[in-house]
Design a protein that fits this description.
Elements (H helix, E strand, L loop, with lengths): L2 H11 L4 H19 L2 H5 L2 H5 L4 E10 L5 E12 L5 E7 L5 H17 L6 E6 L8 H15 L8 E4 L6 H15 L19 H18 L9 E5 L3 H12 L3 E7 L2 E5 L6 H11 L6 H6 L3 E5 L10 E4 L8 H9 L4 E3 L8 H9 L3 E3 L1 H4 L1 H16 L5 H23 L8 H19 L4
Bound molecules: NADPH dihydro-nicotinamide-adenine-dinucleotide phosphate (NDP) and (2Z)-2-iminopentanedioic acid.
(2Z)-2-iminopentanedioic acid binds next to β3, α5 and α15.
Length: 445
């Protein structure tokens, strides 16, 4: 395999899909060596087949807003690869969603799901719908209209969607209600369900908890732990909330959170009621973090700024792709940050990653460190299949074990000769190999 040849072909076929190219290039560059050591991969065209999704459903979602006006959004489900299990991955509602966004996310999801060691293939879906400022009824109508089309291609053994940006427990509930009405089936077709109707305990917390468990493992490699560490988190949504909760519980102090409007610096740390307040803020359907500083006098709001200028020991980006650029990383390095562990998917630009790799910063890519969310979705699927539920401690224990195992896989495939760990290479190679061997076994399909 020559990465440049595959990339040139991909760019020629999909010239506008920049986020997708970014994700593919990173993976292909990391696996190039191991790929070329296995001539059977080349013979089976594994790379050429991996970079094309199995199928894409694109559909319109017409719905009526509270003023009685007809609105139309564009929606997609990208079923990327089901070599190791049914398609699995979240749904994103965000105005910037394009096919390129969902292809990048579906591609990443394929390797992430492989890393969890559970039987899940990769997929992603969503729409360019902006939930901000919408009423609860508008959200319901949109979710129902979305499911009216999506239900045709999903099922517990076929494709199991979940949440992502803009899609949480409320939206999953509305979508599930419509799926049930259309199919007459009460089954494990979505994850992130309410605990009273098939959801798993710990799923809401799982991505953030997993990020912090992974961070702890990274810190152990340099003989450190979270106790007393200053943590900066971006975003204030589902992943950020879980990460803040667990980091605080393990003795760290979260000193900054951010939104699209800027960041807040809280000298006393985000803990106790302030963590519950994050959920309130999220549900308020506003687009801003500023009210945090109006509510808690210990915090100062910095308008239009990114939180990476705040001196910290640990950086946990939990908002959106490409939210950390070269300048941001230089700030982190200058301030002696020791660990950058990704909660979001692809939050660092390629330029930022280059600088990180030339520094001593411990750095983990999202597909390894944020895999706890989908892993716990996998545990929800297992519970649904057994028609049993596990207690909170049982799920949390399994989640913790999975994160420790993913860390070990990264070390196995990413350890450099000088003892440092290239988590990008480790995660990509470990995730890829399992999918590639499954594809080999299953022939050219
Ligand atoms: P949410 O919608 O719950 O939260 C996203 C958060 O990011 C919100 O607080 C949002 O604020 C904020 N945000 C959006 N744009 C920016 C910006 N430019 N600067 C700062 N903050 C911003 O989504 P999730 O927490 O679910 O997802 C966050 C990230 O984690 C995404 O990359 C997602 O793909 C990834 N992820 C999610 C998983 C899950 O299980 N939910 C699992 C693994 C990864 P606002 O809403 O005001 O725009
Ligand atoms: O990016 C992700 O891993 C998610 N949004 C969670 C997907 C899932 O199926 O739980």
């Amino acid at each position: 395999m020559k990465v440049s040849e595959i990339m040139n072909g991909l760019i020629a076929r999909t010239p506008n899909e920049l986020e997708y190219h970014q994700a593919v290039k990173e993976v292909l560059e990391s696996i190039e060596e191991v790929y070329n050591d296995h001539p059977q991969f080349e013979r089976a065209g594994i790379a050429e087949r991996l970079v094309e999704p199995d199928r894409v459903l694109m559909f319109k979602v017409p719905w009526i807003d509270d003023k009685g006006k007809v609105q139309v959004n564009r929606a997609y489900r990208v079923q990327f690869n089901n070599a190791i299990g049914p398609y699995k991955g979240g749904i994103r509602f965000h105005p910037n969603v394009t096919l390129s966004t969902l292809k990048f996310l579906g591609f990443e999801q394929t390797f992430k799901n492989s890393l969890t060691s559970l039987a899940m293939g990769g997929a992603k879906g969503g729409a360019d719908f902006n939930p901000k400022g919408k009423s609860d009824i508008e959200i319901m109508r949109f979710c129902q209209a979305f499911m009216l089309e999506l239900h045709k291609i999903i099922g517990p053994e076929m494709d199991v969607p979940a949440g992502d940006i803009g899609v949480g427990a409320r939206e999953i509930g509305y979508m599930y209600g419509m799926y049930k009405k259309l199919t007459h089936q009460h089954e494990g077709v979505l994850t992130g369900k309410g605990v009273n109707w098939g959801g798993s305990l710990i799923r809401p917390e799982a991505t953030g908890f997993g990020v912090v468990y992974f961070t702890s493992e990274m810190l152990k490699t340099i003989g450190q732990n979270l106790e007393g560490k200053r943590v900066v988190v971006s975003g204030f949504g589902n992943v950020a909330w879980g990460a803040v909760k667990k980091a605080t519980e393990l003795g760290a102090k979260v000193i900054a959170l951010s939104g699209p409007d800027g960041y807040i610096y809280d000298k006393d740390g985000v803990s106790g009621d302030k963590i519950d307040y994050m959920t309130e803020l999220r549900l308020s359907n506003n687009d801003v973090i500023q009210p945090y500083a109006d509510t808690f006098p210990s915090a100062i709001f910095h308008a239009g700024k990114r939180p990476w200028e705040v001196p910290c020991d640990i950086a946990l980006p939990c908002a959106i792709q490409n939210e950390i650029n070269e300048d941001d990383v230089m700030n982190l390095v200058k301030n002696n940050c020791i660990c950058l562990c990704e909660g979001a998917n692809m939050p660092c630009t390629p330029g930022a990653i280059k600088i990180i790799q030339e520094s001593k910063l411990l750095y983990s890519p999202g597909k390894a460190s944020n895999a706890g969310g989908v892993a716990t979705s996998g545990l929800e699927m297992a519970q649904n299949a057994m028609k049993l539920t596990w207690g909170k401690d049982e799920v949390d224990k399994r989640l913790h074990e999975i994160m420790v195992d993913i860390h070990s896989a990264c070390v196995k495939y990413g350890k450099n000769s000088n003892g440092s760990i290239d988590y990008v290479k480790g995660a990509n190679v470990a995730g890829f190999l399992k999918v590639a061997y499954a594809m080999l076994d299953q022939g050219i399909v």
